[in-house]
Amino acid sequence: MTNTGKDALERPLVTFSLLAYNQEKYIRKAVEGAFAQTYSPLEIILSDDCSTDSTFSIIQEMVADYHGRHRVQVIRNEKNLGLIGHINKVLSTVKTDWVVLAAGDDVSLDHRCQEIVERVRREPDLKGLFSGYIECDELLCPIRTVTPLQASNIGALQVCRGGGYVFPGATFAIHQDCFTLFGPLRPRILAEDWVLPLRAAVLGKIGFLKSSLVKKRGLSESLTRVNKRIMGDILPKNSCPEEIYENLATIRRAHRSGEISLLKSKTLAITIQLHWNIRCCECANEPVGTLRLLRGLASSFILMRLRDTIRLSENCLTLFLNKSRARSQEKCKNL
């Protein structure tokens, strides 16, 4: 499938990437959602991470019976790579500018890719795009509709202020620069949706579609849910400087117990530490200092050639935190 000239500008080739692992109960609906996409030209990647059940057999069967207009590529890993390794492998094969991400237990509505392309064509500065979703039970019966609260596009500053997490990764579409310019995701990070949005925000802007474009199953065994529970224990609960730094030690222990070494998970570590630093400055009523710090860090991301979002030295961050702590404690004493 070749798309050149004016057509390539108006209707660029897009990749729809569906990642699956041991999801034989759900994969059929997920693949049907991929095949049903109304947008064209579309390349569909169906990738299985060495499932031990019949997930891959179902994918093979459905691809053999498919005679639609989309190009379909099937990948099966020889050994299980895990979530992050799987994402790295798939993204390394993508040749298009935009990638629509999908999970093997969710279902994309047929107009998902169409709405995404229409939006990114109107706003070329976007490097990431979230949409709303319909939360469903295991049988895909709707429970509620979840819509992004953001009314406008956001950048690195807003992502950092939120601690790194923006919206569920199952609804995310990213520009391939988020992978090619930064390199592979580090294998020990908790979840890709804590890292890819920050990369996108450093490169450009993140946009939001109010439309619900994904039926997302709320499964208790979901890896994302497990990771979010871990993060719920990690993120700070208080805004007093002393308590923040008490939590800092707790976080370090949590990183070790969760096998997410701060040294090997720079992106996640930095977004969390920025979150604490913001709280510390806000306690001291220093929003201007906070903004300056975050803008400076965002500039540093670019100056460092955008490698690994942020191979900033932990010592440098600690210096920022210690200075903010000292100022905050001094101000708090005078309250």
Q: How is this structure best described in words?
A:
The chain contains 13 helices and 9 strands. With 335 residues, it is an alpha/beta fold. It has 2 domains: 5-217, Spore Coat Polysaccharide Biosynthesis Protein SpsA, Chain A, CATH 3.90.550; 235-333, no CATH class. The longest helix has 20 residues, at 314-333. The N and C termini lie far apart (67 Å).
Topology, element by element:
Blueprint: H1 5-10, E1 14-20, H2 27-35, E2 42-48, H3 55-64, E3 71-76, H4 82-93, E4 98-103, E5 107-108, H5 112-122, E6 126-136, E7 142-146, H6 156-161, E8 173-175, H7 177-180, H8 196-203, E9 205-217, H9 223-234, H10 241-257, H11 266-283, H12 287-303, H13 314-333
Parallel strand pairs: 1-2, 1-4, 2-3, 6-9
Antiparallel strand pairs: 4-8, 5-9, 6-7, 6-8
Helix pairs in contact: 2-3, 10-11, 11-12, 11-13
Number of strands: 9
Helix amount: 40-55%
CATH fold annotation of the largest domain: Spore Coat Polysaccharide Biosynthesis Protein SpsA, Chain A
Number of domains: 2
Fourth-tier CATH superfamily name of the largest domain: Spore Coat Polysaccharide Biosynthesis Protein SpsA, Chain A
- Summed up, the helix count is 13
Taken as a percent bin, the fraction of beta residues is 15-25%
Order of helices and strands: HEHEHEHEEHEEHEHHEHHHHH
